[in-house]
Amino acid sequence: MDKKRKAGERRRHKIQALWALLTNSYLTGFIHGKIYRGNLKKLCVPGLNCYSCPGALGSCPIGAMQAVIGSWNFKFAFYVAGFLVFIGAMAGRFVCGWLCPFGFIQDLLHKIPFPKKTGTFKSDRMLRKLKYVILLLFVILLPLCLTDVLGQGAPYFCKLICPAGTLEGGIPLALLNQSMHSALGWLYMWKNVLLLLTILLAVMIYRPFCKYICPLGAVYSIFNPIAVFRYRVDQEKCTGCGACRKVCEMQLDPVREANHPECIHCGQCKKVCRQNAIRNR
To answer: What is the pTM of this model?
Structure first.
């Protein structure tokens, strides 16, 4: 059963890697240090994939929403809102577990050996509510209230917080463009400090960014209980052995908390269940 679970995890990582490559396949951008601005950039990708990544072919829905939420005159605002609702209603946080490039990076970081991995702690469940505060404040309220003459808001989350943007966009662009060096200041340093902290925490804690910070995960989590793709637990088959609870790295009990807002649908609970009590709906 352990071999089956590990095989399932490898399969998930292969899909994550393939999706990351497909959505960041503008190789010319990495050579010349320029951002792709073609027609595909008008489309959003499901996961948190930075617009400013030199290889990115699509837009991050969180970054796009911040840019246009201040004025509903922008048809793009309706597109982004509809996109988030559609993806959330179809898949929920399946996107987090299988398609998000930064989620994949955190998965790999957590495999780095560390003396004591941290599963949960006293304020863990309370801290997970922080991502909803960040969604409301930095993605919705600030861009909605502080706009320019065109009704466009600044991407406050991307600008002040997002470590994925720093890793995927900020650092590559700074390394590839010498002309940008003189413009780097305290904000760039601040973002790198946040990125370094996120990397260190990801080694110790499974997906800390997804659990505590990510506003996109907060959006999708709302749809988890009602999404088309969700889990069903057959209580008649379940023996209450607790194997699924032990392997859940989001620290959930799949029997009692199936389709919980924190579930990223990684599928490990299904793989470890000897009774096949956990299935997709």
So the answer is: 0.93
| Averaged pLDDT score across all residues of the chain | 92
For 222, other C-beta atoms within 10 Å of its C-beta total 18
Average pLDDT for 77-105? 95
Q: How many CB atoms lie within 10 A of CB 74?
A: 17
Q: Is 149 helix (H, G, I), strand (E, B) or coil?
A: coil
List, for residues 125-166, the tens digit of each pLDDT value.
999 999 999 999 999 999 888 877 766 778 899 999 999 999
C-beta separation of 93 from 215 below 8 A: no
Number of H helices, E strands in the chain: 17, 2
**Contacts for 105-113: CB closer than 8 Å, 24+ residues apart:** 105/167, 105/202, 106/202, 106/206, 106/207, 106/208, 106/209, 106/210, 107/13, 107/16, 107/207, 108/13, 109/199, 109/202, 109/203, 110/202, 110/203, 110/205, 110/206, 110/207, 110/249, 112/203
Inter-residue contact 261 to 126 (CB < 8 Å): no
Instruction: Give every CB contact of residue 40 below 8 A, 6+ residues apart in sequence.
Output: 57, 58
Contacts (Cβ under 8 Å, ≥6 apart) of 193: none
Cβ pair 156, 66 in contact under 8 A: yes
Q: 280 by DSSP, 3-state: which?
A: strand
Give the separation between CA 245 and CA 254, rounded to whole angstroms: 6
